[in-house]
Design brief:
Length: 441
């Protein structure tokens, strides 16, 4: 049984859940591959309540696992060691500051809700991901999420101005009035971005906003190969300042679609490009660059969403085939073709189905593997090693979690891992919060 906390009755009634039917909804990841268990779910609604729970857990030598929207693909949001589960979903406040073009949001606010709220002010947020309806801003900050607009706005680290946190030792950082400039030494807040909760619980985040563009259009073209997509991407990024996203759809992903795509003969997949221009301006640019090929161009919001669905629905199509093991990889952009071919070759040899798509504009390829669990483990390790050999990373935007702990040494030396352990002990003594994430205890 999970160790109980000695909390005042009124507070315990407010934040503690022991109903197994409710708790079970929080104990498996999006893919259904990672399943955990706990007896106690904690649902705080303020920074102060999070601090109370962390302090109580420390007094009782209990462990906590922090969960946002539970869209993690690395197993880091599931209680695998029977930790008490702290969900941030009730940390849901939003305050927009038009003067500084920032929004301060509770860690449990979903990306979609933020997008709706700031649109009232004519603003947009630079980071966008397909799981926007459930992904929370606290979780996105903790994993340094990237998404489809990294090539223009960068990942979360480039869009976070400030944040509040409760460290594992019970101490806190609380947000001050928004400052766009602060050069008073190293930022502890920056340390928390991408930390996956190993130092503490992010309770709120202040985010940099952007002015909405009045123009947007999207184009898709079939490819003979992924290398052709890289060539087109390089040309567009070098000549067109308004490029907002460049995405790759593998041919094996397109083959899973329930309907026929609006283009022909995509033997090498397809390339999706979004620009902050009108459709006619985009068509003129493609013509001027002598990119005379089959393009499907959309400008109305309905048409744009229709083309984007070919990219954003792939994860759903893959899930219909089986429970995928998702590898979130990054390599230098000019090596992404090598990574794609290597992943397909390794998977074929292991008799594993391999479905690829991703953010071609920033070198991030999502490799989805479906097949026998034993074969998946060997296959994924071979792909991780090959990714590192190509000068890449075993995690582009989803973190290490629990699924990639054993292969982290491919990326981080023993000295680096030791220094990280020292930092954990400083801010989160005894690894009370997220004890099994990123590094083995």
């Amino acid at each position: 049984m999970t160790r109980p906390l000695d909390l005042p009755t009124s507070f315990a009634d407010k934040v503690c859940v022991t109903d197994p039917d409710i708790i079970d909804q929080y104990c498996s990841d999006w893919t259904g591959r990672v399943i955990g268990t706990t007896d106690l779910l904690l649902r705080p609604s303020t920074h102060h309540e999070v601090a109370q729970l962390v302090q109580a857990a420390r007094q009782h030598h209990a462990t906590l696992l922090v969960q946002g929207g539970n869209t993690s693909l690395a197993g880091g949001s599931v209680p695998l060691a029977h930790e008490m589960l702290l969900t941030t979903k009730r940390l849901d406040t939003i305050a927009v500051d038009p003067a500084s073009m920032t929004a301060t949001v509770g860690a449990g606010v979903t990306l979609a809700r933020l997008q709706t709220e700031i649109a009232r002010y004519g603003f947009t947020f630079g980071v966008d991901i397909a799981s926007r309806g459930s992904a929370t801003l606290g979780g996105m900050t903790a994993t340094n999420a990237g998404g489809i607009h990294v090539l223009r706005y960068g990942p979360m680290a480039d869009n976070v101005v400030n944040l509040s946190c409760v460290f594992g030792d019970g101490s806190t950082i609380e947000r001050r009035d928004t400052l766009l400039k602060d050069a008073t030494g190293p930022s502890l807040q920056r340390l928390l971005i991408g930390s996956e909760g190993i130092f503490g619980v992010i309770t709120s985040v202040t985010l940099r906003l952007r002015t909405q563009s009045p123009r947007r259009s999207v184009a898709i073209t079939p490819l003979e190969s992924i290398d052709e997509g890289v060539d087109i991407s390089t040309l567009l990024r070098g000549k067109l300042a308004s490029v907002n996203a460049i995405e790759y759809l593998g041919p094996e992903a397109i083959a899973l679609a329930p309907s026929h795509p609006p283009w022909e003969h995509a033997v090498g997949g397809a390339l999706l490009v979004e620009v902050l221009e009108t459709a006619s301006a985009l068509a003129d640019t493609l013509d001027n660059l002598k990119l005379h090929r089959e393009w499907v161009i959309a400008e109305t919001e309905r048409e744009i969403q229709g083309l984007w669905s070919w990219r954003e629905d792939i994860a759903t199509w893959v899930a219909r085939v089986g429970k995928p093991l998702k590898l979130d990889l990054a390599v230098p952009i000019n090596r992404i073709g090598d990574l794609y071919r290597m992943a397909q070759m390794v998977a074929k040899d292991a008799r594993i189905q391999c479905v690829c798509f991703g953010h071609l504009g920033d070198g991030n390829l999502h490799v989805n593997l479906v097949g026998d669990d034993h074969a998946l483990e060997a296959c994924s390790r071979a792909i991780y090693q090959a990714t590192v050999d190509l000068g890449g990373s075993i995690s582009a935007e989803h973190g290490i979690g629990t699924l990639k702990k054993e292969v982290l040494p491919l990326m981080r030396s023993a000295s680096e891992r030791h220094r990280l352990s020292q930092l954990i002990e400083l801010f989160n003594p005894g690894r009370m919060i997220n004890p099994n994430v990123m590094l083995n205890s």
